[in-house]
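Review form for a predicted model. The reviewer records the input and the model, then writes brief findings.
Reviewer: anonymous (R2)
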Amino acid sequence: MIGIVGIFCAVPHEAASVLRRMGDVRRVVVGGVSAHEGTLGGQRVLVLAAGMGATSSGPAGALVAAEPGLSRLWVVGYGGGLDPTLDLGDVVVSPQFPSGFQAPVLRGSRRVVEGKILHVPGVVARVEDKARLFRETGALCCEMESGVIGPIFERHGIPWGGVRAISDSASQQLPVELLEASWDADARRPSPGRLLRRMACRPRGAVEFLRFVLGLGLARENLGRVLERLVAAGTHGQ
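Model under review:
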């Protein structure tokens, strides 16, 4: 054992595949924050849904202050593809694979690659914006939490990295209004009533939204497979 590995995602369903792979899972409260504790890849882990974007800072700060045994952090979840060669369900590890990491076989013959993950303040929905960010930054995908959570752990000397399963490719347009309607960021919970009302007003966007949701199962499954191997690589002292 090398200490406790923290696994932060934005919303609970991102962690579903990880939780299925864990042993001795139990709910715990650390620093007033609800989390799941257990073992993964031979290592003790704490899995926390911290909220989307800026709302993740509170739980992150509470956890790092209350759990002195944290030795490593992975900020994980779905990521929007910027590199046009990445497919739905591919997984990006940033900044690089740890020594000893052995890539698992992914569902759908997808790939796991190492490279830059870009923090953005909001959903990047338009294809042209994805292309511009890829051109300007060289990042493989984007997400909304690492720039908030990462610096908190850096200040405490805790190393961290990112793991993102591609939930929408660079060529896929997203119905950002419906995505925002589907989740109450302040309450950190789904808002199905608000979503259904918006979908009724935007039938074309509803088709795009359903396409996005149907693809999340592949991304979620591959995220869990990769994360288990990443934790195991650290467990064996690499």
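Findings: Helices lie at 16-21, 57-66, 127-137, 146-154, 176-181, 192-201, 203-214, 216-235.
Further findings: The radius of gyration is 17 Å.
Recommendation: see findings above.
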